[in-house]
Amino acid sequence: MRMAQKIPTRMGDGSVAFLTRAEIEADVWAGVEAAVNRAKVPPLGEDEVGHIVDIYASPARFTGVDIGSEVVLSYDGSKIGTFTSRQQDLQMYEQCFAADLVELCHVDYSFKTVKTIVAFEAQTMRDVQLALTVPVQYGAMPNLGLYCQPDGPLPNWAELLPMGKFDEARAAQEEAVEMAAADMIHVGEALAEAGADGIDFDTAGAAGDADFLATLKAAEALRARYPELGIEIGMAGEFVLGMHGGLEYDGVRLAGLWPRDQLRLATRAGAHMFGPAINVDTGKSAAWNVARAITLVKPCMEEATIPVHMNMGMGVGGVPMAAFNPVDAVSRASRACVDILHLDGL
Amino acid sequence: MFAMPVAHGCASGLGGLRAAGDLVARMQMARGMRLGEAKAYVAGRLGVTPFDLSDPVLMNDLRREFGLGHVMTFEMSYPEEPTAIEAKGNIADLLGLEIPSVRLLEGRMHRRARGGG
């Protein structure tokens, strides 16, 4: 009896795994099922599963979308961070990496900390705008955790909750929402006035529903002032955690939202780009992860009225959680998501 | 570093300044256009088809013709071509967009002629 050929593929941590085509197909179906069970979304069709299997069962080192089907590549944190200045980093992304838009950011990637040096960031934005042709946005994280002790003035809700002090925990988060939104608006305005083409709220919702609410409020305020400013809301994870549990935006409870509902609120707040983020399970294969990610994001694509730029960096969107990501894994995830979801960008 | 921009760029990217990716990106950012609409808009302004927008050979010629900026090529000089901010002025005209950095630059220039200090 002839043994089935083992194909080199990847696990969610980037390590090599040798699987047969049948094993890859089983993983893809299992990834779809995991998404359906978790988020109550429709499953992928057989043709879509078949396409993912074809992509992942190929032993080729590299793969890509069809010519003419390319999408916009937006970047958060487009920096080298080692031997060059920030302006040179952005120029390299423009001149060497073919980035469609780049992002100026500070190494301490939070709006609260950027607020203290916003004049320097605005000056840098002005300077890079003179040197780059591609659009330059400014990005940072809402990072609501910085507003509670020991990093901020408010009581720490993560400590209050285990003590059963729910009202106090909620009150602290509600206060943090207003502080964070004010900081994001302040920084956003300063960078917009310095010539930024856009503001990127990256990893929105990282600290839960209050973090997401602060982001939506800031986006709404900036949109009211700047009708054509690029505003991107990129999520921290696939699901909005209910650290508060009762917060709403425009009458919608934020805790528990999956990508389609996140997109709806980002659109209402005035975002011009939305980035769903689907976390990677490092113990599952790359094929399992990409199938799960596609299944979770597909409902977004069916009703999006703004561009959807799926997060496909390290550890999200089916890209392995590995600092030195293999190009075989990245190119497969890139092609699978663009082909099946018809994304507007990554 | 290597895998993200290079692998994604080769697998699915529009090509940025090598082609017309930055122009399509501008329409998404400023107007919230979805990809098909943004590609059709940019292609219409350039007089090409959406398919052409990722072609670096064709787009390099068009970018130079319209003064839209382009990737600098090793051992060649372009003293007569627009700088980055000048190219963005041409992009703003082509796309019918107000590009913030161009507006700010123009606001800082010719102040005496405009009655300023």
What do these coordinates show?
The complex is a heterodimer of chains A (346) and B (117). In chain A, helix 8 links the parallel strand 5 and strand 6. A five-stranded parallel beta sheet of chain A has the order 3-4-5-6-9. A two-stranded antiparallel ribbon of chain A has the order 1-2. Chain A has a single domain, classed as TIM Barrel. With 346 residues, chain A is α/β, with parallel strands linked by helices. The mean pLDDT of chain A is 96. Chain A is 44% helix and 10% strand. By secondary structure, chain B is mainly α. In chain B, helix 2 crosses helix 3. Chains A and B meet through helix 3, helix 5 and helix 11 of A and helix 1, helix 2, helix 5 and helix 6 of B.
The whole-angstrom Rg of chain A is 21 Å
The count of domains of chain B is 1
Question: Helices and strands of chain A: which structural class?
Answer: alpha/beta
What share of residues of chain A is helical?
40-55%
> Per the principal axes of the C-alpha atoms, what is the gross shape of chain A?
globular
Overall pLDDT metric of chain A = 96
**Largest sheet data of chain A:** 5 strands, parallel
How many strands appear in the DSSP assignment of chain B? 0
Q: In short, what is this structure?
A:
Helix content of chain A is 44%, strand content 10%. With 346 residues, chain A is of the alpha/beta class.
Write the layout of secondary structure elements.
The complex is a heterodimer of chains A (346) and B (117).
Chain A: E1 7-10, E2 16-19, H1 21-39, H2 46-56, H3 86-95, E3 102-104, H4 111-115, H5 118-131, E4 136-140, H6 157-160, H7 166-193, E5 198-204, H8 209-225, E6 230-235, E7 248-249, E8 252-253, H9 259-269, E9 273-275, H10 286-303, H11 327-341
Parallel strand pairs in A: 3-4, 4-5, 5-6, 6-9
Antiparallel strand pairs in A: 1-2, 7-8
Chain B: H1 3-12, H2 21-31, H3 35-46, H4 56-66, H5 84-95, H6 100-108
Helix pairs in contact in B: 2-3
